[in-house]
Amino acid sequence: MLSTTPYYAVIFTSKLQDLSEEDLLLYAKLSDRMVELAAEQDGYLGVDSARNEVGITVSYWRDLESIKEWKTNSEHTMARNQRKLFYKHYNTRIAVVEREYEFGLI
Known about the structure:
Radius of gyration: 14 Å
Strand order of the largest sheet: 2-3-1-4
Order of helices and strands: EHEEHHHE
CATH class: Alpha Beta
Number of domains: 1
Distance between the termini: 12 Å
């Protein structure tokens, strides 16, 4: 369980460009850094991520203000400015999580 509901989920879905091995390494390094950086932000609750043909990353936040602060983080902004290098397409959605159920261990 992440937190007492309700909380917010930022759902980022993406398709990568056809990247060189060098660019894939850069993407992975940048992605790892964004996860580390987000975890330092006030209001951050956690993240789930998967990448195959489509990448899906869901980050969880206490409130909309925390999400806004994350979006305006200077290092996060610099990373977003490289999106044309990495992505064919992406979409960001923000949703309220009203209930949470869990089974088993991850």
